[in-house]
Amino acid sequence: MRKLQVQGVHHITLTGANRQTSIDFWEGVLGMPFIFDQPNLDDPDEGHLYFDPGDGRLITIFTNETRTANRSRTPTDPGCVHHLAFNVSKATFSQAVERLNERGIGHSGPKDRGFMDSIYFKDPMGLMIELACYRFEPPMGCSHADVMIEAHRIRVEASDYNIQEKHLADAIERVVARRQQTLSDDRSPRNPY
């Protein structure tokens, strides 16, 4: 038996309201360029809009001119999507409350997640959206996942409840030590003063 190895998210497709509401939210609120537009090839009564969330991948929205915005929460039953999280810079995150308030969009306020900061609000169809801002940058040539798995190991070794910034800092040090060779015989911390 062999796996079907995935290599990243290709796209996520959501059921949206009408065309303009969808464009106004995904591009007008979240800043995702509207890059492609065609009919839904499986339903001639629907449109299919494509947006770039910032990494060249795709968020696509099925639209129908008879659907209107309904901000009541989408189902969170087992098997349903709970929320979508999008990466934002620290500069953008620090402006999120003000910018959501300017539009009258209700939100959770900033949430401390240990390794990241988050804020939650709903799209026009009631899907929970999260803006997430990492508290660290991975070393050159490494991914956030490389640091996260090492931080998890450190957290478990310490019997701590959740990942904290100290785990991230130590994880980055370990990742660099494994990835980058040195001419020194001793890489341990020292005091040069």
UniProtKB/TrEMBL annotation:
Residues 8-134 form the VOC domain. Signal peptide: none annotated. It holds the Pfam family Glyoxalase. Gene3D superfamilies: 2,3-Dihydroxybiphenyl 1,2-Dioxygenase, domain 1. It comes from the Bacteria. InterPro entries: Extradiol_RC_dioxygenase (IPR052537), Glyas_Bleomycin-R_OHBP_Dase (IPR029068), Glyas_Fos-R_dOase_dom (IPR004360), VOC_core (IPR037523). This is Glyoxalase-like protein. The lineage of its organism: Bacteria, Pseudomonadati, Pseudomonadota, Alphaproteobacteria, Rhodobacterales.
